[in-house]
Amino acid sequence: MSKARVPWKAVAGGSIGNLVEWYDWFVYTSFAVYFAASFFPEGNDTAKLLNTAAIFAVGFFMRPLGGWLLGRYADRKGRKAALTLTVTLMSASALLIAIAPTYESVGYFGAVVLVVARLLQGLSVGGEYAASATYLTEATPRGRRGLASSFQYVSMTAGQLVGLGLQIILQNTMSTEALHSYGWRIPFIVGAAAAAVVFYLRRNLLETEAYDEEEREAGQAGRGTIKALMAHKKEALLVIALTMGGTVAYYTYTTYLTKYLSLSAGLPKETATLVSFCALFIFMCLQPLAGGLSDRIGRRPLLITFGIGSMLGTVPLMTALGGVQGFGGALVLSLIGLIIVTGYTSINAVVKAELFPTHVRALGVALPYAIANALFGGTAEYVALWFKNNGIESGYFWYVAGCAAVSLVVYLTMRETKDAALSRAEQSAKDSVPV
């Protein structure tokens, strides 16, 4: 089992679209400091960011609907079909943001366009996460799933790095005035074009053996339905609870970090962006190492390590980051936080997929995860800025630690999933092995 080969072609096909999806998703927050005034011209910088962060959160609240619709679609029509559909929706939403009119042109109608685009993105990402997680997990044999599925967060982080890298290039080749005027539209145009390329690549993916087996033997009756999911209520609640602490910590040390270093620590925007870029690159490289480790020692030890580290380390780390004065110190502290988060990000996709049977796997991953993200991940940045705007910024650090504590209880009590059989063929092979 340990010598099973990773199907790299399938991993690459499932991941590259995820990269574009999350590039478009994260580039909104990366460039919010430049386009906030174009849609919300009144108020101070924090108030403007609060408005754009609220729209960011709106996209998250669309994710449960996307998780339900596209998770159902993936369970009934196939993982490949769902992956193709999600990247199509993301391309359309990125293009919509790129051409959104400003307040100066049409008043707050431009903000309405932003909201519509974020709703489409939320719908798309709500299904993308589950389709990608399910595809990567099902396409890989036991003993290698932790490694293969870790590339979901490799691709997610790579998408953010591409966005941050483009921001660094634009910051060094365009004036601040040009960036605020029209330069912020460039990354959204790039995202829409890249998604069109991925659409072609995903159409050539092969369907997973587990899904084909389910389709041959069981047909469509009951596949991907809420009724079928309710037969696994315990697992669905488990997904929500184990996601809670991880998603808040992840968005704290990724999307919110650049703003925090700029607004609270007082670092120049360019320095804060470079810190995030370097820290995320190292974070990305750590994902396969941790995912491969989970194939050997199990998923729970990594989750427990994350839970303890995030619960005890968030307050001192974020406090220290708020007072950091240079690139080096900010990078080291950011890396400590991201290393802790790796215990969650590297394996959370495979853990969720291993909890459910094939006929409801995509929906089982998508809907509970999307609910948790809507409640905790999508609101993380807004909650952080709210605490800051009310002069009690440290309250947010305790909030993150508290969410991690709740998830830690789940990690300590949940079952190990690394040896789960994801198909009838795998179960038969498992049963035939002498005890």
Automatic annotation (TrEMBL):
Chief localization: membrane
Residue ranges occupied by any Major facilitator superfamily (MFS) profile domain in the UniProt entry: 10-419
Localisation: Cell membrane
InterPro entries registered for this protein in UniProt: H+-coupled_symporters (IPR051084), MFS (IPR011701), MFS_dom (IPR020846), MFS_trans_sf (IPR036259), Sugar_transporter_CS (IPR005829)
Keyword Transmembrane helix assigned: yes
Protein topology in the membrane: Multi-pass membrane protein
Membrane-traversing stretches: 21-40, 52-70, 82-100, 106-130, 151-170, 182-201, 236-253, 273-290, 302-321, 327-351, 363-384, 396-414
Nucleus as UniProt keyword: no
Keywords, alphabetical: Cell membrane, Membrane, Symport, Transmembrane, Transmembrane helix, Transport
CDD domains from the UniProt entry: MFS_KgtP
Similarity annotation: Belongs to the major facilitator superfamily. Metabolite:H+ Symporter (MHS) family (TC 2.A.1.6) family.
UniProt name for this protein: MFS transporter
Native species: Nonomuraea purpurea
Lineage, uppermost ranks: Bacteria, Bacillati, Actinomycetota, Actinomycetes, Streptosporangiales
